[in-house]
Amino acid sequence: MVDPIVAGQEALDIVEEGLSAEHLGPAMWRVADLDLVAAEPALRRLLDRKFGAPPKPRQGRYRWSQPLALRWSETEGRWQHAVVSALVRCGTPASIERLEQLIAEPRTERNVRELARLAIVRIAPDRAAAIAKALLPSGLAGALNNGSELARGVEALLSSSPIGARDPIVALFLLDTAAARTAVFAVVRVANLTVIGEAGLMRTLLRLAELRRDGELFAAIARKIDGHVSGPPQWNGSRYTSGPFGAQTRAYFRRRVARVLRRLGRADSPHYVAMATEMLLAYSDADAQAPRHGGKHTSHWYDAFARYHVLNDVLYGQSPRYERANYARSAWRCTTSYRPGDPVPAVREERFAELWDAAPDASWRLVRDGRAKPVLEHATRALRANRTYLDKLPDEELSRALGSGHALAQRFAFEIARERPMSMSLASGALASELDDAHAWVVEWVLDQPDAALKDPYLIALLVTGKTSGIRDAAVTLTRARAMDNAVARSAAIRAIAMVLGMPDAAAERATGAVETFLAVLAEPAREVSVEILRDLIERSKG
Question: Distance of CA 273 to CAs 270, 357, 410, 491, Å?
Fold first, then answer.
């Protein structure tokens, strides 16, 4: 484990010796990654520092050969950017006055002002509304409680004036209410990365999200940049250009996103797992490509997710089967001893496994909500050894994974569920899954415990509208053997009608079978359902 005092002091010692702005970054990153509040007094001193003679070369962790004797006018912006970035994570109320002065100074660069505002909001969250409203036009300020209206407003503003929209959108980021987040994510979705102003806004939001440890926004922007296609370079009259996010720029941001996560992991930061989780949830099996061979001059293969640098860096940073193809490239390749489809090694492959072990809730979230096979493989492997955590999972959580999770999640959840006593939550999840043995598990219980099954109208409706004919046949068998209570039957009929009306067009065959089973099992109690209820169900199905 990292000792934050020792590590932070090491970084501060370097900076206090007079390092130039060219070398300030690594030390400030370290202080910020550690959330080292004890560093705040030194950071405030550094913020007001003026450059003198260049420091003498030093041996140690941060080494340089010929320090640059840069003038203050050339380095002020970079120096302030680095120090204020650290104050976002390490600042206390003692820094607010200096940050306000920095915002008010005309020569302060725009990005430094934005960082200073974020630092103030993190130190004093109650000031977020006042700071944000000062940057918002009246039309947006009046819609702060309406997410959809706010989203339409900022989208229109972005379309008409990408550069002018920057302050209002950053203000909404600082405000961070549910409505404001809706608007910010709407901007991320519609932003055009070929337009300089909009591309610059995405860079700004990515940096701010990184410092606030806003994993959801960080992942959304990172994936947008990663998936951008700039096309071939175009001649602009003086040179060829690929626009704000050409191939080299995208490759840089891929490396940067992974580097941010690695720094947090090396600092044993609790934010590492949270940020990495959001990144992993941003991928799905639809992102996979066909595995391919590297060509006749190599024995390496490239697997389905080879092109996604941050995904591979998080999941396979300690893997014996994958390696980075080249420092300047974001692709990962198979080692010479592994080919796509070979057995998965038994060892853990992810970076910072101990941090994942300490955060089983995050791994379970990846199981429940993940949509990419490598993500599910990582999460289930991390959780299998934590039997204490799995035994405490509520039935409702297992049901959700069974009913709507990835195929691997369904299988993993069923392995846990089948060892428990049957509950309605587990039954509903199992029947909603794609697993034949999960369906059979519920059907067997229903036929063994008919009295208990006939008391639950929701379970009866699930059987009547089941995914397979075997499930629906169990409903017929159950109700023929015993009579249902009238109230239970009416409730089951209403629920079954609602389920059939809610089925998508692609489930036409299932709907037909469900109607046939409904008529065989619930036709009589359905006669007692009022017309008003039926109309309401039909209207809801349309909406």
Answer: 7, 10, 23, 44
58 CB burial (10 A radius; 0-12, 13-18, 19+) = middle
Ramachandran region of residue 471, left (φ > 0), alpha (ψ -120 to 50) or beta?
A: alpha
- The pLDDT value recorded for residue 369 is 98
Domain of residue 118 covers 1-59+74-123
Residue 15's pLDDT is what? Answer: 57
Cβ 294 vs Cβ 340: under 8 Å: no
* Cα–Cα distance, 126 to 419 (Å, whole number): 49
Same domain, 106 and 201: no
**In terms of pTM, does the model score above 0.85?**
yes
CA-to-CA separations, 165 to 127, 154, 198, in angstroms, rounded? 22, 7, 9
d(CA 100, CA 88): 13
From the centroid of its chain, how far is CA 238? Answer: 41
pLDDT along the chain (543 residues), means of 10: 59 59 75 91 83 49 41 64 94 97 94 98 97 94 92 95 95 97 97 94 98 98 92 76 86 95 96 98 97 86 96 97 85 94 92 98 98 98 96 97 97 97 95 96 95 93 94 94 90 90 86 89 83 65 52
Is 324 among the domain residues? no
Boundary of a domain, candidates 212, 245, 278? 245
Tally of domains within the chain: 3
Q: Are residues 33 and 3 in the same domain?
A: yes
- Does 506 map to a domain? yes
- Say if 201 falls within a structural domain: yes
Asked whether residue 330 is domain-assigned, the answer is: no
Residues 138 and 91 in one domain: no
Given a contact cutoff of 8 angstroms between Cβ atoms, the answer to whether 224 and 190 are in contact is: no
Tokens of 91: 């600042």
My answer on whether 129 and 98 are in the same domain is no
Q: Are residues 135 and 212 both part of a single domain?
A: yes
Q: Are residues 481 and 540 in the same domain?
A: yes
Q: What is the pLDDT of residue 225?
A: 95
pLDDT, position 541: 53
Which residue reads 């396979």 in tokens?
316
Cα 123 from Cα 377, distance rounded (Å) = 39
Q: Are 201 and 239 in a shared domain?
A: yes
Name residues whose C-beta falls within 8 Å of residue 86's C-beta, 6 or more positions apart in sequence. Answer: 28, 29, 31, 32, 39, 43
Q: For residue 534, which phi and psi values (nearest 5 degrees)?
A: -65, -45
| 3-state percent breakdown (helix, strand, coil) of the chain, nearest 5 | 65, 5, 30
